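User: Second chain of the day. Same drill as before.
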Amino acid sequence: MRLSEFSNTAIPKIEAEMKDILLSAKQAHDTSLYDMLSYHLGWSGEAVSRQSQGKRIRPLFLLLTTGAAGGDWETSVSAAATIELIHNFSLIHDDIEDNSEERRGRKTLWVRDSMPLALNAGDALFSISFLGLARLEKFHPNQTIVTAYSLIAETCLTLTQGQHMDISFENADNVTVDQYLEMISGKTGALLAASTELGAILAGVNPEVRQHYKSAGLNLGLAFQVVDDILGIWGDPQKTGKSASSDLLSRKKSLPILFGLSRSGKFSELWDQEITPSNVHILAGQLKIEGAYDYAKTIARQYTQTALDAIENANPGGIYAEAFDELVRSLTQRDY
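Assistant: Same format as last time:
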């Protein structure tokens, strides 16, 4: 089965389940709160589209893992909805913490409705997310559901720990490459790892195969983030949708930049000076001369290969293996 065919079937089921979970938690006096969550999830407000809803990559990975690992993916839809709601709770808070005014071409929730209300909405979405796991009881034994609860709780903690590190790095003078890689393991890798691991759990695989799927998800997330870091400096604006060298202009401590700073060369000197649209290309060029581009490419390829090795060891099969492989390639075969 092709990914497009699977997505056309699965995404409407994911959306319906997410909406049902939210509606099940809605009280008569919660109309305003529900409207905020509906807007953030891309279901209402201006410019509603598939783009406003996001790509739903994590729930697709969960369902395809369940199917490719030998389970019935339709019994895992509630878990997939939970994963996507958790992801979106984190985005509400991230937008506030990063002072981001736009997401998916629309105003962020805190800009539209105020920061206090958006913080509260994020907290509500976090709580509502866990209600989805209880709905697994229709198809899975209690011990499996307890395992799912534990995994998601641990993942949320790891996710917020990664975000804490990321925020702390903004004012830190000496952030190392190793610290950065630890941070993205939490902020970016943890939820994708949980998606593939939970999909494997719900398929009933043995612990060894479960670990392979978890490793695949974690390393796919890390590879994706490192490629994003490369594109944030040297990417084609026509493809990325961001201005060239945007991470340099915003002084984001991404992997290539931290590598360049660790060299203590000409790039470090330029970094300490004012960075403007007129001179940012000089910094990007110097960073490349000092090896940051090649270094980041090597790291991305290492994470990608580790993920592919884990997938090979997990040995996905059945009619969903092709769609699973396509989704993997959509994350790992971007131009940079």
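The beta strands are 102-103, 106-107.

User: Great, on to the next one.
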